[in-house]
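DOMAIN: structural biology
WANTED: fold as tokens
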Amino acid sequence: MAIETKDQFLERMMMQEKPNCPHCNQLMSVWEVPPINFSDGLGWGAPYLFVCFNDDCSLYKDGWQNIEENYGHLASYRCICYLGEKNFECMPVFSAVGGTGQVIDDQVMLQEEVLKENIKKGFSILADCYVNQNTIEILRLLLDSGQPARVRLKAAEMMGDIGPVEAVDALKTARFGNEKLQEEVLKAVRKIHERHFTRECPFCAEIIKSRAKICRHCGKEVAGE
């Protein structure tokens, strides 16, 4: 089962209509959870939530008195909702600005829209490349650090499916700065070798046949290596 990335989760969340807070009927905000545990210490369970930040919300306004009378603390509640859930929950806040630093504002949303368009464009190019077996363009997209991570991951997968042996050197020498992408590239290299019945000489790193006993490049015996 594929693991959903944080960007993919946010993209899916943005495609869903925001819920209205059941306490004040105001549209809830997309909120990025902080890097701290919540409630039972098991984490938030999602990288983003819907949160009501309306200061006139009855839950928030009444929460100050409720918590002070019952627990003796200066705090209140904000209404939260998980993606795909119909139930609403509460999270504690300790000031009027508590949690507002993680609100995904319009500027971030605009950046995400641009990212979605770039992903869509990149996938379209890759689809054409796959049909036309244009591995040079696929490799270019894979090595382009300006491309979205999802596009580069797909390009790496395609290189494994249709890439030539000649692409192995470029793939092995590149550094991607992304652990998941680096793993996908190494997987692509293995698939290329499997498809072409090749491997790399353990002594000189040149590409040789899988069943070769002597490396034709360095002359070392490689049987069983």
Summary: DSSP finds seven helices and six strands in the chain.
